[in-house]
Amino acid sequence: MPIVTVTTRDGRTKDLTAQNGRSLMENLRAGGIEEILALCGGCCSCATCHVYVDEDWLPALPPISADEDDLLDSSGARRPNSRLSCQIKVSDALDGIAVTVAPED
To answer: Which of 17, 70, 71, 97 places its Cα 20 to 30 Å from the Cα of 82?
Structure first.
Protein backbone atom coordinates (compact mmCIF):
# COMPACT_ATOMS: atom_id res chain seq x y z
CA MET A 1 0.00 0.00 0.00
CA PRO A 2 1.32 3.45 -0.89
CA ILE A 3 2.69 5.83 1.72
CA VAL A 4 1.58 9.47 1.60
CA THR A 5 3.52 12.11 3.51
CA VAL A 6 1.31 15.00 4.57
CA THR A 7 2.33 18.26 6.20
CA THR A 8 -0.41 19.93 8.19
CA ARG A 9 -0.98 23.66 8.45
CA ASP A 10 0.99 23.84 11.68
CA GLY A 11 4.02 22.18 10.05
CA ARG A 12 3.62 18.67 11.50
CA THR A 13 4.50 15.87 9.10
CA LYS A 14 2.77 12.50 9.14
CA ASP A 15 3.21 9.41 6.99
CA LEU A 16 -0.07 7.67 6.15
CA THR A 17 -0.62 4.26 4.63
CA ALA A 18 -3.08 4.93 1.82
CA GLN A 19 -5.60 2.61 0.24
CA ASN A 20 -5.39 2.18 -3.53
CA GLY A 21 -8.45 3.19 -5.52
CA ARG A 22 -9.60 5.81 -3.02
CA SER A 23 -9.07 9.51 -3.49
CA LEU A 24 -6.22 11.24 -1.73
CA MET A 25 -8.85 13.25 0.14
CA GLU A 26 -10.51 10.07 1.49
CA ASN A 27 -7.14 8.71 2.55
CA LEU A 28 -6.14 11.94 4.29
CA ARG A 29 -9.42 12.07 6.22
CA ALA A 30 -9.18 8.38 7.13
CA GLY A 31 -5.66 9.09 8.38
CA GLY A 32 -6.91 11.72 10.82
CA ILE A 33 -6.06 14.87 8.87
CA GLU A 34 -8.99 16.95 10.11
CA GLU A 35 -7.89 20.07 8.22
CA ILE A 36 -9.21 18.43 5.05
CA LEU A 37 -12.88 19.39 5.42
CA ALA A 38 -14.15 18.00 2.10
CA LEU A 39 -17.52 19.64 2.63
CA CYS A 40 -18.83 18.43 -0.75
CA GLY A 41 -17.78 14.85 -0.07
CA GLY A 42 -15.39 14.74 -3.00
CA CYS A 43 -17.65 16.05 -5.77
CA CYS A 44 -15.21 18.76 -6.88
CA SER A 45 -17.50 21.57 -5.85
CA CYS A 46 -16.07 23.20 -2.71
CA ALA A 47 -12.22 23.27 -2.72
CA THR A 48 -12.01 22.49 1.01
CA CYS A 49 -9.60 19.63 0.25
CA HIS A 50 -6.99 21.92 -1.33
CA VAL A 51 -3.41 20.68 -1.03
CA TYR A 52 -0.03 21.62 -2.41
CA VAL A 53 1.58 18.67 -4.14
CA ASP A 54 5.36 18.41 -3.92
CA GLU A 55 6.54 19.62 -7.32
CA ASP A 56 8.49 16.40 -7.99
CA TRP A 57 5.16 14.53 -7.97
CA LEU A 58 3.17 16.79 -10.30
CA PRO A 59 4.15 14.87 -13.47
CA ALA A 60 2.74 11.65 -11.93
CA LEU A 61 -0.74 13.16 -11.60
CA PRO A 62 -3.45 13.33 -14.25
CA PRO A 63 -3.94 16.75 -15.81
CA ILE A 64 -6.11 19.19 -13.90
CA SER A 65 -9.73 19.28 -15.12
CA ALA A 66 -11.52 22.50 -16.06
CA ASP A 67 -13.79 22.20 -12.99
CA GLU A 68 -10.86 21.71 -10.63
CA ASP A 69 -9.00 24.60 -12.25
CA ASP A 70 -12.03 26.90 -11.83
CA LEU A 71 -12.43 26.00 -8.16
CA LEU A 72 -8.75 26.56 -7.45
CA ASP A 73 -8.99 29.95 -9.18
CA SER A 74 -11.42 31.00 -6.44
CA SER A 75 -8.78 30.35 -3.76
CA GLY A 76 -6.58 33.18 -2.58
CA ALA A 77 -3.99 30.55 -1.63
CA ARG A 78 -3.60 28.98 -5.08
CA ARG A 79 -0.08 28.09 -6.19
CA PRO A 80 1.23 26.40 -9.34
CA ASN A 81 1.31 23.08 -7.44
CA SER A 82 -2.24 23.38 -6.04
CA ARG A 83 -4.61 20.45 -6.50
CA LEU A 84 -7.85 19.27 -4.96
CA SER A 85 -7.13 16.05 -3.12
CA CYS A 86 -10.55 14.67 -4.06
CA GLN A 87 -9.41 14.61 -7.69
CA ILE A 88 -6.28 12.50 -7.11
CA LYS A 89 -6.84 8.72 -7.16
CA VAL A 90 -4.26 6.89 -5.08
CA SER A 91 -2.33 4.03 -6.67
CA ASP A 92 1.02 2.32 -6.19
CA ALA A 93 2.44 4.84 -8.68
CA LEU A 94 1.97 7.53 -6.01
CA ASP A 95 3.88 5.67 -3.28
CA GLY A 96 5.90 8.35 -1.48
CA ILE A 97 3.91 11.37 -2.69
CA ALA A 98 4.20 14.39 -0.41
CA VAL A 99 1.49 17.01 0.04
CA THR A 100 0.90 20.01 2.28
CA VAL A 101 -2.55 21.11 3.41
CA ALA A 102 -3.25 24.54 1.94
CA PRO A 103 -4.39 27.41 4.19
CA GLU A 104 -8.11 27.71 4.77
CA ASP A 105 -9.79 30.30 2.54
So the answer is: 17
* Separation CA 6–CA 96 (nearest Å): 10
pLDDT tens track for 40-52: 989 999 999 999 9
**Helix, strand, coil: what percent of the chain each, to 5?**
25, 20, 50
pLDDT, tens digit, 9 for 90 and up, residues 58-71: 999 999 999 999 99
pTM: 0.95
CATH number (domain holding residue 13): 3.10.20.30
Mean pLDDT of 22-43: 95
Structural domains of the chain, count: 1
The span from the CA of 86 to the CA of 50, in Å, is: 9
- DSSP string computed for 13-57: EEEEEPPTTSBHHHHHHHTT-TT---TTSSSSSS-TTEEEEPGGG
Instruction: Show the domain range for 24.
Output: 3-101
What single-letter amino acid sits at 82? S
